[in-house]
Design brief:
This protein has 259 residues and is an all-alpha fold. The chain contains 8 helices and no strands. The chain has helices at 2-18, 30-59, 68-88, 109-136, 144-171, 176-201, 208-232, 238-258. Helix 2 (30-59) runs parallel beside helix 8 (238-258), helix 4 runs antiparallel to helix 5 (144-171) and helix 4 (109-136) runs antiparallel to helix 7.
Amino acid sequence: MNTLIGLLIPLIGTTLGAACVFIMKKEMNKLVNKVLLGFAGGVMIAASVWSLIIPAIDMSNDMDKLAFLPAAIGVLIGIVFMLLLDVLIPHLHYNNDKPEGLKNEKIKKTTMLLLAVALHNIPEGMAIGIVFAGVMNDGTAITLASALALSIGIAVQNFPEGAIISMPLRSHGMSKLKSFYYGFLSGVVEPIAAILTIIFSGFIEPLMPYLLSFAAGAMIYVVVEELIPEASEGDHSNLGTIGFAIGFIIMMTLDVALG
């Protein structure tokens, strides 16, 4: 039951953010958006370090001075994995008119916007899944409290993500209800990715350190490739930096205090 709740917490964050379309009349303020993008990046980097990479290294203590190796390999594979998805999957970021990935003129703009958010959410769902898989495996040092801290931290940063997908859709003429639906739908990929990761990890428990760091590498890629550039674009890029610092500190505090 605790695992199910943990898997759904991030989706709740996305859903609440998407619901902002019912109370906001216009598109999200660009300065606020910069802060929120930076905040999301800070949460994801802190979660990558405290919730994923450090536990991966701790699990590899029997390798002595090479304890860093599984984490390093996992991070690298996670980054390459997301790079391939970024290159192959056609997607469109809401503040950009040029689609990325393989060209496919048959895919609607709305669909490509959703795919862009899904690319962000896949590694987050994987991270949650592998952490809760670690909780269910008595041989790991991951506690339920630290796993819930990760879920809460990602839910906090999913709130602005939900608004970031639903508000632009509304500004392009889509109805409030439909904009909310698409915002909610963008977050459904997380629990799906988490469940699939838990199922997959059950067959390869000895690879847990690699899986943890793999999820970390995937999240780091998203932050460096997408969130930071978007938060730094144009004037007042320092707002993104401030948001990053706040998100980082909040996620670090949650993980240490609850873990």
